[in-house]
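Reading a protein record of the kind used here takes only a little practice. The record below shows the convention in full.

——
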Amino acid sequence: MRRNNMGNTKKLIISTTLIIFTTICANASTATDDLHFKVRGGYSIGGTAPLGMPATIRSLDSYSLTPSFMAGFDISIPVKKQWGLTTGLHIENKSMKAKVTTKGYRMELKKGTSQIEGLFTGHVKQDVTEWMLSLPVQVSYCISNKVVLRGGPYLSLLLSKDFSGIASDGYIRQGDPTGPKIEIGSKEGEWATYDFSEDMRPLQFGIGIGGDWLFCRNVGLSIDLNWGLTGIFKSDFKTVEQTLYPIYGTIGVFYQF
């Protein structure tokens, strides 16, 4: 039910954005003097997680901030009065490190030369890193000459990706809850590893909202929240049962030409 609702939400957002985009483009001024150019950079904080913690994840034991940066340029086109359209090109990375305790969590692990798939109970260390090129398309609203609000979809092309980690201090029931029990130790050589990097989507779609504050002639501060709607894995990937969404906030600075 949750995935159906999410699918309907994505269709509604895409349809509404296309209507707004078409309307704005039909009315937008083509004079280059009306265009506003910005270069921006920022630091992002967030994570890749399901909507709601599943019962198979018993606790989040630790979360580590990792360097996540964004840099790029924007072009803003004024339309009518305070309304406009903002687009651009951003290079960014979204990464996280986390440790969780699981019980009966479906995993595909590698221990030594053996591949094991089943239900894992124990500790999982997870590393996620995505480098991407993102194209935002946002409707903008100027509250004043110094403050602008923005919102709209984005499309990201992944340049590199990593979703890997270690499973330790537990056991895995091979196949199903009554399958053979395989112990997973706490030391190197005893623990198991996993790597689902090749199963990640090469393209991601999401929606973002944000705002810019021009506090000193050409220099300003920005804040953004980006929420991935497609999940990070391909639709035919079933090993991780929950859909994982990248949700990141970014605090940045910009220079307006």
Observations:
- The radius of gyration is 22 Å.
- The first helix runs from residue 2 to 27.
- The chain has a mean pLDDT of 87.
- Residues 57 and 102 are 4 Å apart (CA to CA).
